[in-house]
Amino acid sequence: MNNQNFFPNKFALITLLIGCFVVFVSMGIRQTYGLFFQFFESDLSITSTSFGLSIGIQAIVWGTFATIFGLIADKFGANKVVSFALIIYATGIFFISNFESSGLFFQINLGLLVGIGLGGAAAPIVVPTVAKHFPNHDRAKVAGIVTAFASVGMFVYPLISNTLFKITTWNYVFNIFTLVMIFAALLALLLKKPNDENEPDVVKNQNFIEALNEAFSHKGYLFLMAGFFVCGFQITLVATHVPNYIIQRGLESWTGAAILSLIGLFNIFGTLTMGFLGDKYSKKFLLSGLYFFRGIILILFLFLPASSITAIGFGIGFGFLWLATIPATFGIVAQIFGVKYLTMLSGIVFLSHQFGSFAGAYLGGYFYDQLGSYDYAWYISIGLSFFATLMHLPIDERPITRVRNA
After folding, report:
1. What is the CATH number of domain 14-391?
2. Using an 8 Å Cβ cutoff, are 133 and 191 in contact?
């Protein structure tokens, strides 16, 4: 029976609190870029394709640096990684708001610098960092709690942005976000690395090359990567293009902000629910069901008549499933491979997610500019939902058996 305290020690509590605040900031601000597109278009002459490309570049850079930062965090601790990443993130949006950020400069700022910042300060790094401080039977819950605070940010920041647009310029809004990130960077220095005294020697002595070989020889790990590609495609397509898609279907612009905020709000409940269920039931079946229902919701959103009610229903339904993939996906990685290289292995799975994000962001903009419609991107997203539904079923969730070398 697991009757011990939820917090093993005070460092676990501190790490959880700081981790929740960091993802609240990093993931919340990221959720607003679709709302800023109208200003990028009018003030910086950024096209939909160019914006989609910048988000796509951001996604690939984010995933690549999540892997690199994950290895560094596993070896030396996450505090310096997260703090450094937040400073780079803040630099990117500060440059966009205070300099003539167009053309290549826009791609460097929103694509490269913000991507590097997210690579070290968003959920794929912070969730495993916090989860390492807790025993296996609580890790999915912890992942759900941290991800829920990312969802709170995704709910709050679009509302804050939309409110501030009415009283000040978009440049000033970005400057406010810059200051918030700097504060988060200072707090991140307090993140602690857990000790590994309870790990068996066969795990302690494993190097990262051996960990990589072990992971890539496990079919379940590859299936998780395939499924997370789909997650990236879908959520980035929605976050980047749904505000403009809603307008193209004849609805008022406020519905786009409402969808993004509702996604953030109901994702709080979705991630917490998945976190608690993931500690009790098979995580692969939970993921399979999640992707199936995503496909159904996308079908309804695309083919039902456009209305405010349909838009709100989509925000609620898709929001409940938005980041609920994270507790179960990272939970399976921890369950199979342990926690020594959890941040790195989770980062690699997330890199696959970001290739999907690139495809979703770029293809959405490309189809719109070339064909005048986002529909083909939505069709692809629906098909990928049912692909991911099937890909999770064969995963073997049992912890891997390691043999001590003589």
Report:
1. 1.20.1250.20
2. no
